[in-house]
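Quick one:
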Amino acid sequence: MIHHVQVACPPGTEEALRAFYVGVLGLTEKPKPPLLAVRGGCWFVDPSGAELHLGVEEDFRPARKAHPALTTADLDGLADRLTAAGYPVTWADFAETGQRRFHTEDCNGNRIEFLPE
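Output:
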């Protein structure tokens, strides 16, 4: 079982991360331990308890291929929320895996995949 996945973020983007991961995706922010909080970044938890950590990387480059895949109870509703908020939604070819899914990018350009629960 995976406890968490970490992806990188540029310094100073915590508020934008919160707006995306909490405001658009509906995840919950988990406070970082004090010794780690000074490094910046944010931690988020989805309803299943899986964690997504965003860690500051000074020479940040967004992950374009590597990505976390998250599940949602309302795939179409989430796609609509992302589109309304100005984020890209790219539906994957159903024939590839036999499962509906799409990709988007977070506020820093990191790729994220969404699948139904």
